[in-house]
Amino acid sequence: MSFGLGMIIYLIGSLSCVSNLEQFNVDRSLQLSRKTESFKDDDWLTSIISYYLLKLIRFKFYLRTIQWKTTNESNTKKLINQLKGSFQNAHSDSYQARLIIDCS
Fold first, then answer.
1. What predicted TM-score, i.e. pTM, was given to this entire model?
2. What is the count of structural domains for the chain?
3. What's the superkingdom here (predicted)?
4. E strand or H helix at 2
5. What CATH number corresponds to the domain at position 58?
6. pLDDT tens, residue order, the chain (104 aa)
7. Domain of 48, in residue numbers
């Protein structure tokens, strides 16, 4: 998911101190809208993980979604499927990766 520059700097500073970390969990909220489609091409922190967490075994990404009232159910399902596919493509083989989506 797209993280702001301040969060990226914080993550890099923190993860560089724990290079032997074996499990990494991220908890994030996202408002579903048409703009969400731009996230399907995000790298889901793979560049940071591959550089700083060489001993990682498990990565869990908890994504809490908030729907706009104007977003219909079929579009929501389509966006969620795109996010899942993007996540799987980004985290394919080095460690166990799991995306957990909570729709509200």
1. 0.84
2. 1
3. Eukaryota
4. none
5. 3.40.50
6. 567 778 888 888 999 899 899 999 999 888 776 555 556 567 889 989 999 999 999 999 999 988 766 667 777 888 888 888 889 988 987 799 999 999 87
7. 5-103
